[in-house]
Amino acid sequence: MTGQLYDAIHQRRDVRGEFTGAPIPAGVLDRVLAAAHAAPSVGLSQPWDFVLVRDRALREAFHAHVRQERDVFAAGLAGEQADRFSRIKIDGVLESTMSIVVTYDPDRGSPAVLGRHAIADAGLYSVCLAIQNLWLAATAERLGVGWVSFYREAYVQKLLDIPADIRPVAWLCLGPVTHLERVPDLERHGWRQRRPWQDAIHHDRWQH
Ligand SMILES: Cc1cc2nc3c(=O)[nH]c(=O)nc-3n(C[C@H](O)[C@H](O)[C@H](O)COP(=O)(O)O)c2cc1C
């Protein structure tokens, strides 16, 4: 049990190029969504919702928007960095089986959200935990997940009829994959390296 959990944690990858487009059995999707919904949340507010996007036209429209935002980001790069970025695939929206848009409703359970009075972001943290549960459960089910954040929230709200006060936190691509890479794409392309976990540890105070 412990070994399988650690396996899922370390095998999890952000997937862009390895989606097959094969169907996801309904029971598997249910388990992944139930795992996401089992996440902890501030004041048990459960501020998340999951919009399952299968419609091809919606995904194509979103993909066109992502390409535009990719160009916006690329315009701020120069030299070797621009060159590296040009080789990096940033989404698998069209190749994956489906998308799941995970949203945040700051009003759920409010005004007295237990534990959020001093840290408004605690609501968003809760949504991210649901996303991570989904990601790990999908990995355990041998599915790939790719988080796409090259979008404007207002665009996704309009595209999917999401009310203005509900934030689309993540556009996730989901589906069977040929394999999961062992090394993250950004490392393989020399964009950034994962630092040793020991470097992230501080004892008693920040400086050590
Ligand atoms: C909040 C968030 C947003 C991300 N957005 C994108 C994205 O738009 N496109 C992309 O290719 N990867 C995106 N990623 C994936 C990261 O690049 C990836 O997690 C990181 O490079 C480490 O690789 P790994 O997830 O395979 O370990 C995102 C990840 C997070 C947590």
Automatic annotation (TrEMBL):
InterPro entries the record matches: BluB, Nitroreductase, Nitroreductase-like, Nitroreductase/BluB
Keywords from the named record: Flavoprotein, FMN, Oxidoreductase
Superkingdom field: Bacteria
SUPFAM superfamilies, per the entry: FMN-dependent nitroreductase-like
GO molecular function, one term: oxidoreductase activity
Keyword field contains Flavoprotein: yes
Keyword Flavoprotein (UniProt): yes
Domain Nitroreductase as annotated: residue spans: 9-175
NCBIfam families for the chain: BluB
Protein name from the UniProt record: Cob(II)yrinic acid a,c-diamide reductase
